[in-house]
Amino acid sequence: MKRIIVLGGFGFFGGMIVRQLRAEGFAPLLGSRRSQADVVIDVHDPDSIRAVLRNGDIVVDAVGPYQDRGPTLVQAAIDVGFDVVDLADSLRYVQQVYRLQDEIDASTCHIFTACSTVSAISAASLQLSGFRRPRRISGFLVPSTKYTAVKGTAVSLLRSIGQPVEVYDDASLQTRIGWRSARNFHMPKPIGRVKGRLFESADSITLPTRWPTLETVDYYVSTNVTGLNQIFTLASYSRWMRQVLNRYHQYGLSLSRFLGHRYGGVGYEVVDENDEAVAITYTSNDHGYIIPIAPAILAVRKLAAGNLSFRGINPGDFPLDPHELIEFLENHGVTYHRISTC
């Protein structure tokens, strides 16, 4: 039987993945720099990785923030032959992985990068839209902040506020200033109307590789904490405020968990070449945190069963059945909606 190692297994998302895999009958090992881990490993150290990981291992990488990571783990996977499923949201990190595509495709490993809300849920939503030639996809994230306000998500968010970010617009990567642009979107209750702020996402490079008709890929976030969107909007214009937020973000995380909501979700507006549009949403009153880990769980299932038809890096639409994804989410308290908007 293949070993399944969850790196970052003591963190929030890594711990959720471990618990879900155990509930499904797997026996995942916890990987961490901590001495009490089943597999003691440092994802930044190539020698540490090669010393403990083996050919045929399935490695789930939940070590954020990916904005501070290089592709060290993937490079080791190419050499050793283990599989990697990561939850990367960072455009820069995924770009580094994509630069290794020739080496990955020539290896014996499978690499599922951005196998989370970004970009697997986004790709599934493009498939569920029913459009063969989509022109635009806009994502809207409303996190279950009561649970998910952790260091990795905070760093990911703060790196976009008032900073140059890359978005896919006019069929190419364009530089914008994060959080200064806004777009409205309507989600089912209890979320309702959302005013999201521009955020950098790996979707801008993953999705156009599979859907070349896309002209615009953008992503918007609402913090789901009363008053915090307004504070971040002001910070997007103030370097001093951004420095304060970065320095004291640990206190902000505690406050966000206290003031944040249990409900959350993600939604997409997909527009085709004829300007027909659909809205696709995944929402939950109390289990929105399951959405980011669902694609990784499904990927591990497929890797453990050995029934994948490809090797190398994942294709742009990910070899995940979107209907299997919906079934998994609905079984875990997440509601799926698809609505034609024009």
Average of the residue pLDDT scores? 93
The assigned structural class equals alpha/beta
Into which percentage range does the β-strand content fall?
15-25%
By CATH, the topology of the largest domain is Dihydrodipicolinate Reductase, domain 2
The end-to-end span amounts to: 50 Å
Give helix and strand order, one letter per element, not per position.
Answer: EHEEHEHEHHEHEHHEEEEHEHHHEEHEHE
The major β-sheet equals: 7 strands, parallel
**Domain unit count:** 2
Which strand order spans the largest sheet, edge to edge or round the barrel?
3-2-1-4-5-6-15
Q: Any idea what the shape is? A: globular
* Name of the CATH first level of the largest domain: Alpha Beta
> Count of helices?
14
Helicity range of the residues?
25-40%
Radius of gyration: 19 Å
Notable characteristics:
342 residues, alpha/beta, Dihydrodipicolinate Reductase, domain 2, 2 domains, seven-stranded mixed beta sheet, globular
Nutshell version of this structure?
This protein is an alpha/beta fold and 342 residues long. The chain contains 14 helices and 16 strands.
Question: Can you describe what's shown?
Answer:
It is a single chain. The protein is an alpha/beta fold and 342 residues long. It has two domains: 4-116 and 291-327, 3-Layer(aba) Sandwich (Rossmann fold); 128-288 and 335-340, Dihydrodipicolinate Reductase, domain 2. The protein is built from 14 helices and 16 strands. It has helices spanning 12-23, 46-52, 72-80, 91-98, 101-105, 117-129, 145-148, 151-158, 203-210, 228-235, 239-247, 249-259, 294-305, 322-331; strands at 4-7, 29-32, 39-40, 58-61, 83-86, 110-112, 134-142, 164-169, 172-177, 182-186, 193-198, 216-221, 264-272, 277-284, 312-313, 335-340. The termini are far apart. The relative contact order is 0.16.
